Amino acid sequence: MKESMLKVLLVAVLLFSFQMTDTMTAWANEPAPEDPEQQLLWKKEKRDKNKEEPENPERERQQPVDMNILKERYPDTFFLQGPTDQNRIALTFDDGPDPRFTEDVLDILNEYNVPATFFLMGSRAIAYPEIVERMNNEGHIIGNHTYFHPNLVKEGDIATLEREVTRTEDVLRDIIGYETSLFRAPYGFLYNELVEKLAEMQYSVIGWSVDSLDWQEDPPEVIASKVLDNVQPGAIILMHDGADWDGDRTNTIESLKQIIPALQEQGYEFVTVPELLNIPFTK
């Protein structure tokens, strides 16, 4: 009797084991669900199971190259400042257009009759084309600042660069009617191959020689001091008219009311980047 019971139990255990194996195999080979939310969960589970997948080797080996080094390596493509024998300087603004701040910046530039160069994100330009049109109509020059503002060294590669730049190029051309030949990288982060690709795409890469650090949202007088204490003939000044959803450029706007008249009193002439560098702004 005991021997019969043992045989029954052994058969039951074997059947249960086969059933669990079939279930696990079916789950592993399960196709992605049709519901979008379920797809996201399914893909996350798949990613978690495949963490051994190798990273993009190009991303792994690259680090941002210092802008001064890039200028030395690519003097016909990469620019940090203009001639130092003339009292001319260029104001530049990144990350716009931003409906919260950009038009206030434009109002101040108009008040002081100062032209500037704006490096725009494609994703924001397509959302606020009327601000881009105003920039263009008021004599400012527009450059390409990628579509989504990625760190092109950490997050991207040459294919990412080409996609981000081309997409923004198309958006800007539809709004302002020309293809800009000016590009500035988010954070200024680039490496050799990216600069070479930009040159191949007929872009001049614009850095800066004076950083206002206005993204830190210091008081207006601190932002103004960082500019006024470091400006020199030929300077390209970096500022921002755009911010993240929780960022604020009010202090940038207020600082311009100190920076512009002070530099004008010192005899500086504000010009656009292509005027300063004597390079074309269209392809």
From TrEMBL:
Ranges in coiled-coil conformation: none
Highest rank taxon of the organism: Bacteria
Compositionally biased intervals (Basic and acidic residues): 42-66
One protein family per Pfam: Polysacc_deac_1
Ranges where the NodB homology domain occurs: 87-271
GO biological process annotation, one example: carbohydrate metabolic process
GO molecular function: hydrolase activity, acting on carbon-nitrogen (but not peptide) bonds
Signal peptide coordinates: 1-28
Alphabetical list of InterPro entries matching this protein: Glyco_hydro/deAcase_b/a-brl, NODB_dom, Polysacc_deacetylase_ArnD
Annotated keywords: Signal
Keyword Thylakoid: no
Region (Disordered): 28-66
Protein name in UniProt: Polysaccharide deacetylase family protein
Organism annotation: Alkalihalophilus sp. As8PL
